[in-house]
Design goal:
This protein has helices at about 5-15, 20-30, 35-45, 55, 70-90, 110-115, 160-170, 195-220; strands spanning about 125, 140-145, 150-155, 180, 185-190, 225-235, 235-250, 255-270, 280-285, 290-300, 305-310, 320-325, 330-335. It is α+β, with helices and mostly antiparallel strands. It has three domains: about 5-90, no CATH class; about 110-220, Phosphorylase Kinase, domain 1 (2-Layer Sandwich); about 225-335, Sandwich (Immunoglobulin-like), CATH 2.60.40. Strand 6 and strand 7 (about 235-250) form a beta hairpin. Helix 1 packs across helix 2, helix 3 packs antiparallel against helix 5 and helix 6 crosses helix 8 (about 195-220). The longest helix has 26 residues, at about 195-220.
């Protein structure tokens, strides 16, 4: 039994009933990808529930005016369907991203070519000899970016599993926008910041352009990821969320299948009414497995920015949105475009 199995097994009934927090939901899914014993426990647990009707499992979007009991019933069907799909997917070929779990590896030159195709010219490679830069014994190859003082460090690990172990060791020290994983590679963008605010303001557009190219290359090219956009609006509010994500199955040195996945979410909720001040703002957008929101005493401008990222690549077909402001309430749906 893998360490932590008992904790996961205690959470499985709540997972099936969709009563877990987002953190515990992801913890269960991550554990199931590499623990066959707990996958069997999950499979046995689902047998206590009704056989899933495929037609009902396709009802990914629950109407806002649906009766609460019917909504809970649909959520239960969707959760069981997700569990069964996970059981089917583990240990066999996953065609979701067109990648077979055969430990297909990348080289540093693959990253250089992909970055160049997205507008980032890199200097000839220079293997680092600075032991302080080593991650789990792996030294990076350093590239200069577009004749600037910025650089990109490319770490080449022997496997996806070893890269994930290395990533776990550095994640608490570096913000995620600085480094991005791509199968067995880990890429760091090192920007040299100017000393004055005026200089920083001057280089900001160029830096943002480079960082976007860097992130797009890793998510969409090296990881063969996808982009999904959801939009919707009510009388006074409109919302838009764009999700870049990747997911693929891999096998470690012990032939155990694992899932590597990540999602980057950006968007906004925008006020489109004619009131001059937005006060006492409360907003929430949620799906069957995710809920995010916040409050503001007063909204500066007309938009609430949405920025979120993390492991797991569950992409909903719709978000239910609820906004309260100035004593008013509106609800609407954002759906896939």
């Amino acid at each position: 039994m893998i360490q932590g199995c008992q904790e996961i097994r205690d959470l499985i009934p709540l997972y099936i009933k969709q009563e877990l927090t987002d953190e515990n939901h992801l913890k269960v899914e991550e554990h199931l990808t590499h623990c066959p014993d707990c996958r069997q426990v999950m499979k046995n647990s689902t047998e206590h529930y009704a056989i899933v009707n495929p037609a009902e499992a396709e009802e990914n979007c629950v109407p806002l005016n649906e009766h609460p009991h019917q909504k809970q019933r649909n959520k239960q069907f969707l959760t069981i369907a997700s569990v069964l799909l996970l059981m089917i997917g583990v240990g066999i070929i996953s065609y979701g991203m067109g990648i077979m779990p055969d430990n297909e590896l990348l080289e540093a030159r693959d990253a250089v070519r992909a970055l160049k195709a997205n507008g980032l010219e890199l200097s000839p490679k220079l293997a680092s000899t600075d032991d302080d830069l080593a991650v789990n014994g792996v030294l990076p190859i350093e590239y200069q970016v577009d004749k600037s003082e910025d650089s990109i460090l490319v770490y080449v690990f022997d496997s996806v599993d070893k890269r994930r172990l290395g990533e776990n060791n550095i994640a608490k020290y570096y913000p995620s926008p600085v480094y991005r994983p791509a199968r067995n590679l880990m890429l760091f963008y090192q920007a040299v910041m100017p000393e004055t605010l005026e200089e920083y303001t001057a280089i900001l557009p160029t830096l943002q352009s480079r960082m976007k190219a860097f992130t797009d290359t890793v998510f969409l090219d090296l990881n063969q990821g996808e982009t999904v956009t959801l939009k919707g609006q009510s009388e006074h509010w409109q919302g838009e969320i764009t999700i870049q994500y990747f997911q693929y199955w891999f096998q470690n040195e012990n032939d155990v299948t694992g899932l590597d996945s990540y999602a980057l979410t950006k968007g906004f909720l925008r006020y489109i009414g004619d009131e001059e001040e937005i006060k006492d703002l409360s907003y929430k957008y949620s799906s069957n497995t995710l809920s995010r929101g916040g409050t503001k005493t007063q909204l500066n401008g007309t938009e609430v920015k949405i920025n979120d990222e993390g492991s797991g690549a569950y992409i909903p077909d719709c978000y239910q949105v609820k906004v309260e402001w100035n004593g008013k309430v509106e609800e609407f749906e954002m759906t896939r475009m």
